[in-house]
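Section 5.1 Outputs to date
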Amino acid sequence: MSLNPIDKTILEYLRKHPNSKPREIADSLGFSIVAVRSSLYRLRERGYVARTSRGYIAKSSQDRRIVSEYSEERISKEAQENLLKDLTNLRNDVNEIIDRVSEIERTLQDFGETITKLEKQYSELRVLIRNLQSLYELSHRRIPSDPFISKLSSEKILSLSEARKYASEGLGGLDKYIESGVALIIGRFVVSKEFYDNVVSMLPMEADKLNELGAKEKILIETLINEGYAYIDPSHVIRLLE
């Protein structure tokens, strides 16, 4: 019985590269590992290759002739047919096992990627919970007429000196509002966190559209650029620094 093209190619490769392993053969010839293992099984059963402690080797013509003569003398036609049937069933079982192993490997890889994503989301969720707790505590501490909150809510952006003035009339210090997440210090300005989030959500933005924004939005974006939190790339697009 003649060899199929894949078996011929792998047999020729082993003649030139003895003691090669299935993975090496698959990578070199561009075949799947399943196809290589199936081919090696066929070649081995037909006496063309042998397995060594270091890999697979191609047998010589004399070796194959001895095996063939021995088989013809010892095995009847009926026994050969039964053996071929058993080997076919075994090959199918082996191929099925190989496919299952490959599927398990893919599943494990996907599982590992999912775990990594969940760990990242868990870390982000912890940060969000801490911020919400701070906002909750602040909302229960401050009085409705908090001068800093009222001023920042209406103005969105204050100078540092102005912010300190109103903060001293409220909780007693600007740092307390910064720590609670209500406000941010950007350069020489204090910005409402809500206003900041709305503005940075506009980025990336083409630089020539900056003048279309409101005065306070424009001030914040220019301050972000000046303070190194954002930049204008070569294509004249304003981007937030990651």
